[in-house]
Amino acid sequence: MKMSGLKKEGACQLKRMTSRSSDLWSFKLALTIKKQVCDPYSRTAITPVHSKFDQRRKRNATKHAIEKLIRHNDVFADIVNVLLFDGKERLPYQELQDSEYRTEGRTRQHAAHIEKRWSGLTFQIHCIGYDAASMEDSDLPMELYCDTMDDYVDKASQHESDELMGPIVPLVLDFRTANRSTAPSTLKELLNPDPKIDRFVSDFRINRFDLAWLPESTVEKFKSDFRAVIQALIQQRKRQ
Which of 108, 149, 206, 218 is the most exposed place for a label (fewest CB within 10 A)? Predict the structure, then answer.
């Protein structure tokens, strides 16, 4: 028996909702596991980490859940619209297109990278700080600068000569809750050039966001399930 168009659309929507709920539940579960394993003072910590394999397994579970959730177009667009455009719907999720990510030769092997294209623009979301043991990433401006330049080289080799090559807009989401990052946010802060030549040195700024420290006024602007993720991170930070 064939399904009518209306029923088929309803079934597809239910499938997407079920998948979304599963992704959000997976993230919260991974966050709970991370709390139990990494916090020696947690009353619910019953299984200590005995090996690097256990730590990597818990970290990968969190990373997988985060990536799955952010890959949804409406979640991706919601993150960009809130963090870059103050909640204004500048990036329509219906028109987002997936973009392939070339991993060969990349410097940031430990970061999730979700990339989508819209109207000639390329938006990238880099995720860092999955586990409580994450160290300060002081070289992030240099690493992200190198990755972005590699992407421009790729785009230059693929685009047609009569087409304009659109810009790349990277965002960095920091999921750490123990300590707020004090790492440099620009290339100049990292390199600290001599004042005599400072004006001749090209700079590169990171659009970096410490999710666990976002103000409530910003969190309320999220319309997708990512709001629950940030609220979970904030609650964990306050419990520490």
Answer: 149
- The model carries a pTM of 0.71
Whether 204 is covered by a domain: the verdict is yes
Q: pLDDT digit string (tens) for 167-178?
A: 889 999 999 888
What local confidence, expressed as pLDDT, does residue 215 receive?
Answer: 96
In a domain, 27, yes or no: no
List CB contacts of 189: < 8 A, sequence separation 6 or more.
141
Query: Does 99 map to a domain?
Result: yes
User: Under a CB-based contact definition with an 8 Å cutoff, are residues 226 and 70 in contact?
Assistant: yes
Burial profile 74-95: b = 16 or more Cβ within 10 angstroms, e = fewer: bbbbbbbbbbbeebeeebebee
Containing structural domain, residue 221? 72-239
- How buried is residue 145: exposed, middle or buried, by Cβ count under 10 Å (0-12/13-18/19+)? buried
pLDDT tens-digit readout, 141-159: 888 888 888 888 877 777 6
Residue type, 46: I
Dist. CA 164–CA 155, nearest whole Å: 10
Residue 49, pLDDT score: 44
State the Cα–Cα distance between residues 213 and 170, nearest whole angstrom.
20
Distance, in Å, from the CA atom of 180 to the CA atom of 173, rounded to the nearest integer, reads 12
Q: How many domains does one find in the chain? A: 1
Residue 52 inside a domain? The answer is no
What is the enclosing helix (H) or strand (E) of 143?
helix 140-158
pLDDT at 201 over 60: yes
| Distances from the Cα of 142 to the Cα of 38, 49, 113, 234, angstroms | 29, 33, 16, 28
